[in-house]
Amino acid sequence: MAAPIQHEDLLKLKGFIDFVNTNPTVLNMPQLQFVKDFVEKFGGKVPDGDFKMPDTGKCPFGGDAGPKAKPAESSAADDSDKSDEDAYISEPESDVELDMEGVIEADVESAQPMGDSEKVATEEEIDQASDLRSQAAAAYSEQKFEEAISFYTKAIELNPGNALFYAKRGQAFLKLKKPNACIRDCDKALELNCDSAAAYKFRGRANRLLGKFEEAAKDLRQACKLDFDEEADEWLREVTPNAKKIEQHRIKQERKNAERKIKERQRAQNKARKEQAKSSAGGSFPGAGGFPGAGGFSGGGGFPGAGGGMPAGFDVGDLMSKMKDPEVAAAMQDILGNPANISKYVSNPKMFNLVKNFFPGGFPGGGAGFPAGDPTAGDADSEEAAFCDAEGKPANSSEPKAKKESSDFVDDGLD
């Protein structure tokens, strides 16, 4: 007959039994109580004593018994491969260890009478409310807190503008372990009187019962500031350690978030710089958009309409630096729009040097280059400074000019 459990499980069970044979006190561990009961059910006896884990650090049932060994430090190469973002993600958030003694479960929120906020009490109603307050105080002193709440509620209905009635009813709710009800009453009291020390005091205590230590410390500190009270001061000293731990933890997290944002911004900037460097290294202007209206050009592609690429040794970076000059940029845009317009800039030394250095074989895209030599060096109006194409012929005529006649020839009108 086949065994009811798998072979692998049988091997584990055998290993466990072998371990128990040599370390029987292990069955005194609380989590193995069911095994101890099984042994004793069949007349076995488990020796008394506490079990100590072996020094090997291995759990007898599999896994590690002790704390995990620290992983080997990563090599410098591995560290360099790991991004700052990964480091932030992998870093666990630290927990705050708080003293939660005295914290109770929050009471279920339920509606409680708050009175008519628009009502103006008469003198008679004010007197009646004062009597009810006295009855409520008497019931409270006798620890009849439900009865005290009832009296305060009636007083509130008669005089809903008295902040102290709400604060005192909140105090009674505290005694009934209803911190949320107390907080609602104290909120109303502070709405009517922002300087109610009693409201701050009881709301601070309610927050402490709910484990809201920072809020509790703030309220109790304000209560002592408005009207020092020994009980409020004692409650404040009770919540201060936890409140400080929470504050320090929050500051630490805010600092981490700020550092994370700085790292993200630096990564974005580095990425943008790399993209720009990559684009420049490829021999094209950023965005491959070129000059407006010209369609752009990229390394090896030449200007629109040009048959070939850039000249050998073309330095895009140097050209871009010269293009920062508004005059040169405007002239280049004009020429790219219509290469024939290059003739307008024959006397411009900036454009002459630009075309000479970057387009020695003529301006790409159909426009001819400037003539050899510096057109600005001589007489700009002389015939020798005429605009020529790359072969040295006049750019605007396919026929050579007629020979200039001598200046001493005079037409006398005779045949």
UniProtKB/TrEMBL annotation:
GO MF annotation, one: protein dimerization activity
Chain intervals with Basic and acidic residues compositional bias: 46-55, 246-277
Annotated region (Disordered), positions in chain: 46-94, 246-293, 367-415
TPR repeat ranges, renumbered to this chain: 129-162
Sequence ranges of Acidic residues compositional bias: 76-94
Matches recorded under SMART domains: STI1, TPR
Cellular component, GO annotation: catalytic complex; nucleus
Biased composition (Gly residues): 284-293
Domain STI1 stretches: 316-355
Annotated PANTHER family: HSC70-INTERACTING PROTEIN
Function: One HIP oligomer binds the ATPase domains of at least two HSC70 molecules dependent on activation of the HSC70 ATPase by HSP40. Stabilizes the ADP state of HSC70 that has a high affinity for substrate protein. Through its own chaperone activity, it may contribute to the interaction of HSC70 with various target proteins.
Protein name: Hsc70-interacting protein 1-like
